[in-house]
Design brief:
The chain has 71 residues and is of the alpha+beta class. It contains 3 helices and 2 strands, in the order αββαα.
Length: 71
């Protein structure tokens, strides 16, 4: 399972860096909704783009059937 203390520390760090925003649930003060901020969305987009470029580079030169065999 997920270590709650580790998760809380990680979310606090992400929030301090302006990547997520936490909002308490009105009916449960122990729980939060977690949202990406605009900065978080921008970072996620950049990461996804780099992953796509890396994936494309790995399969460059492979046939469609060879690429299909990887999935």
């Amino acid at each position: 399972g997920i270590d709650r203390a580790h998760l809380a520390r990680t979310l606090d760090k992400l929030e301090a860096r302006g990547l997520v925003h936490k909002e308490r649930l009105p009916n449960d003060k122990r729980a939060y909704h977690i949202f990406l901020t605009q900065s978080g969305k921008h970072l996620l987009h950049n990461i996804e783009k780099k992953l796509k470029n890396g994936s494309d580079a790995l399969v460059k030169g492979m046939s469609t059937s060879e690429q299909s065999a990887l999935t």
